[in-house]
Specification:
Layout lengths: L11 H7 L45 E7 L3 E2 L1 E2 H6 L9 E7 L4 E3 L8 E3 L8 E6 L2 E3 L26 E3 L3 E5 L2 E3 L11 E4 L11 E4 L43 E3 L2 E3 L37 E4 L4 E5 L2 E3 L1 E2 L1
Parallel strand pairs: 1-4, 2-5, 3-6, 4-7, 5-8, 6-9, 7-10, 8-11, 9-16, 10-17, 11-18, 16-19
Antiparallel strand pairs: 12-13, 14-15
Amino acid sequence: MAIPGPGTPIDLTDIATEFGDSAPHTVSEFYRGGGKVPDSAGNSAIPTSGSIALGNFYGSANIVALALTIASNTNNYDLYTVVSADPSYSAGSTAITLTVNPGVTVGSTSTGTYALSVPSGFNPADSVNIVNNGTIVGRGGNGGSGGSYNSDNAQAGGAGGHALYINRPVSITNSGTLAGAGGGGGGSGGAALQTGSWPKSGAGIFDPYSGNSGGGGAGSPAGSGAPGYPQSVAGKAGSPGTATAGGAGGPRNTAGANYTGAGGNGGARGAAGATAEPYGGSTSNPRQPSKAGGASGRYITGNPYATWVATGTRLGGAS
């Protein structure tokens, strides 16, 4: 519990109680950074040497400053797991600052797991600050597979993963990028396409053409493009995404004026994947529907807990 602010009388016993000192007490024991008083921003009025007075201690507190840095690319960073393993952490009296360095990416190995998490396990009296100078981004959604001509089995694109999860008050200085990952592109439906014309003897004039697959969404790692569906005329594969851009969907399969549609493109960071192109051709041909792209990921889940010191670049939704 902090020492009261100006206007409330304090004495040396108040200071000793706050900073855990045993009698006898002298004010010279309580220089900032000297072993009893943490060298934290809240204690900046307390000198490190020289003249010192009781008035320097108004509003001060026995708070440990714990600075953590992410200096190289990593995935699935759980701040509470890291902090609770640090021997300097003191539950209820720690000011935690996590800095992501410039050029560093914090990603996720799964669309179902956040790139960076600040769960509720911290003591409510702890403070948590995130300073992002790099990129925090979810995993890209995978592209959906194209389907066959005789079954409604094309797949929708996968949703992109989320960047940041917080479940307690956090101060955020975002000078870099927070981004939900891009959704995967949808797969197109297959069709029996007209390959001949009347009159034609022997086999019919229709051949089975597969639908084409969607591209992967942007993220870290990026989403995969789906392989082509292996029917008589195989579907075209979608391309994988990159860190910032979605991959292209597989191009059309064509037979004369008829075609199975292109797979949907994957979404860029913060964007949904595209719906696959529909079948194009005679309405008398057997055909299957194309599928939608996947939703984009969120740049933050738990936004009501956030205090935004700087917003920086934020891509995708928030909840």
